[in-house]
Amino acid sequence: MAPKNIDGSAKKVALNKGAWTAEEDQKLSQYIEIHGAKRWKTIALEAGLNRCGKSCRLRWLNYLRPNIKRGNISDAEEDLILRLHKLLGNRWSLIAGRLPGRTDNEIKNYWNSHLRKKINQKEKVVASAAQEVNILTQETCTITHADVEGAKGSGTSAGNLDMNTFFDFTIDGSYGLEWVNKFLELDEDP
DNA sequence: AACGAAGTCAACCGCTAATTT
DNA sequence: GAAATTAGCGGTTGACTTCGT
């Protein structure tokens, strides 16, 4: 690991940081077009960019490479991100891999700025709903205990909600599984 | 119009994994 | 097999923009 060049006393020239200029973009694009995107340190040097290889790689992957989509994440894409995040967690590069033209950085930003809020709001709603259900359940239990002798064998009323069944997702048929299977199939591809 | 708060997003940092020497 | 180098990932930062007062 090279030490950071803070005071400029070393012979090494301080590398550029911060936003990329159009000129830098052009240099990088042109170089990669000719030589390919390999060995980023060499690319940075030979393209005449006063940047570290890491910075060049990031710029290329997130903005300069072809077929990059920018902005306007569709509802379908958003839905996919939500599902993938549920499945994979913060594995942004994996999630991005399932969204053609999208980058891990973009998805990460989108998640942090848009979706996290949505999720939090949803969770609040779900939590309050669950609390309500909990109260109802307790009431149902009280009624059941009181009436259990008389009700035995007489069948169930429509209002008698079985919470174990309600929250048992294992018997929820193929919900989500089809998609997960497709996902896993894709993952097995080389 | 001016100001501060909140939101957005490009870029950097630190770390690990993979590859090369 | 060990050390050095490179690639890639996720978290975080900071500059800029938008919004509300």
SSE blueprint:
Elements: H1 22-35, H2 40-46, H3 53-64, H4 75-88, H5 92-97, H6 104-151, H7 163-166, H8 177-188
Helix pairs in contact: 2-3
This protein binds a DNA duplex (21 and 21 nucleotides) through helix 3 and helix 6.
CATH class of the largest domain: Mainly Alpha
What is the molecular shape?
Answer: elongated
What characterizes the major β-sheet? none
What's the architecture of the largest domain, going by CATH?
A: Orthogonal Bundle
The rounded Rg comes to 27 Å
User: What's the CATH H-level superfamily name of the largest domain?
Assistant: Homeodomain-like
Helix % is 55-70%
Number of helices: 8
- Low-confidence segments, given as residue ranges, are 1-11, 141-177, 183-190
Word description of this protein:
The protein has 190 residues and is mainly α. The protein folds into 2 domains: 22-64, Homeodomain-like (Arc Repressor Mutant, subunit A, Orthogonal Bundle); 75-188, Orthogonal Bundle (Arc Repressor Mutant, subunit A). Helix content is 62%, strand content 0%. The protein has helices at 22-35, 40-46, 53-64, 75-88, 92-97, 104-151, 163-166, 177-188. Residues 1-11, 141-177 and 183-190 have low confidence and may be disordered. The structure holds a DNA duplex (21 and 21 nucleotides).
Tags for this model:
disordered C terminus, Arc Repressor Mutant, subunit A, 190 residues, 2 domains, elongated, DNA-binding
Summed up:
The chain has helices at 22-35, 40-46, 53-64, 75-88, 92-97, 104-151, 163-166, 177-188. With 190 residues, the protein is an all-alpha fold.
